[in-house]
Amino acid sequence: MNNKGSTLFVEDSFELQYGYNYDYAMVFQVWDEATELTSEQREMSMRTIVTRLKTAGLETSMYYSIDRNQVLCKIRASVERLKQEASRVEYKLELDHLSLRQTAERGIPGHRIAPIIIQNTHGISTKNPYAFCFVKVTDDR
Question: What pLDDT score was predicted for residue 2?
Answer without folding.
Answer: 47
